[in-house]
TrEMBL record:
<keyword id="KW-0238">DNA-binding</keyword>
<keyword id="KW-0804">Transcription</keyword>
<dbReference type="Pfam" id="PF07702">
    <property type="entry name" value="UTRA"/>
</dbReference>
<dbReference type="InterPro" id="IPR050679">
    <property type="entry name" value="Bact_HTH_transcr_reg"/>
</dbReference>
<protein>
    <submittedName>
        <fullName>GntR family transcriptional regulator</fullName>
    </submittedName>
</protein>
<keyword id="KW-0805">Transcription regulation</keyword>
<dbReference type="InterPro" id="IPR011663">
    <property type="entry name" value="UTRA"/>
</dbReference>
<feature type="domain" description="HTH gntR-type">
    <location>
        <begin position="12"/>
        <end position="80"/>
    </location>
</feature>
<dbReference type="Pfam" id="PF00392">
    <property type="entry name" value="GntR"/>
</dbReference>
<dbReference type="InterPro" id="IPR000524">
    <property type="entry name" value="Tscrpt_reg_HTH_GntR"/>
</dbReference>
Length: 246
């Protein structure tokens, strides 16, 4: 084919499939910011699509700010192109990052930034209701979906819940299920925060990027605290949704 964008996937209208292909190419850097998109004619020939379909796909991506047109020279990947499709995350269920991603057919990933074991800080002891000197495990992880960074998570886990920090593989909640310490109740607090240099670099966004910080304090049925996690989510990758009743 005359393009390197790969195969058109299945499911949904043709113009949506072409959009998915273009977004995926940007996601995994086959099309970098500023790169020119193949011409509409090349796309329609390569994928056997009508020019109307190709134009519709591209027009929408231009409207979204994902692509931009420069008169006379073609269509380019915008420098504001969000590198991921937004994910709707429930704000009212006690799900794990891995479960959230699998539910959306994304492959969850995790990269260790730091990990170790130690003792509670006076602050953690107070907010957790733990005795001073209680053992805890601590780690920082970069969370990925299909290889693209989505969130940074900083966790403190009470000592009794895990034999060691190495017991955590790809999923913390899987490890906590094994020790029968998966939490069943949690308090969450959400606030807006911007990404400083360090967060921005890890999440591959510009410094000053608007993110969502969610703090989760999670407990066992008997009230013992298990987890204190601060998750910094990319603001361009998430919508927080909750079902409310009266
Ligand atoms: C979610 C949780 C986080 C938990 C993690 C476990 C929120 C706001 N936070 O990100 O508290 O530690 O999932 O995910 O939902 P894992 O089992 O994939 O490691």
């Amino acid at each position: 084919s005359s393009t390197d964008l790969g195969q058109l996937g299945e499911g949904g209208p043709l113009y949506v499939r072409l959009q998915r292909l273009i977004r995926a190419a940007v996601n995994d850097n086959r099309l970098v910011i500023g790169a020119a998109l193949p011409s509409e004619r090349d796309l329609s020939e390569a994928y056997n699509l009508s020019r109307v379909t190709v134009r519709r796909a591209i027009d929408e991506l231009v409207d979204d700010g994902f692509l931009s047109r420069r008169r006379g020279s073609g269509t380019f990947v915008s420098d504001t192109a969000p590198r991921t499709e937004r994910v709707e995350k429930s704000f009212s269920t006690l799900s794990s990052f891995s479960e959230d991603m699998k539910a959306r057919d994304r492959i969850p990933g995790s990269r260790w930034l730091t990990r170790g074991s130690g003792f509670v800080t006076p602050e953690e002891a107070l907010s957790f209701g733990l005795s001073p000197g209680s053992p805890v495990h601590r780690f920082r992880r970069l969370r990925l979906a299909d290889g693209a960074p989505m969130a940074i998570e900083i966790s403190t886990i009470t000592g009794f819940a895990l034999p060691s920090v190495e017991a955590v593989g790809a999923s913390l909640y899987d490890a906590l299920s094994v020790t029968r310490c998966r939490p069943v109740r949690a308090l969450q607090r959400l606030r807006a925060e911007t990404a400083g240099e360090e967060r921005a670099k890890l999440l591959e966004v510009d410094a000053g990027h608007a993110g969502l910080l969610i703090e989760r304090r999670a407990f066992l049925a008997d009230g013992r605290p298990v987890e204190l996690t601060r998750s910094f989510y990319r603001g361009d990758a998430y919508d927080m949704v909750a079902e409310l009743g009266v």
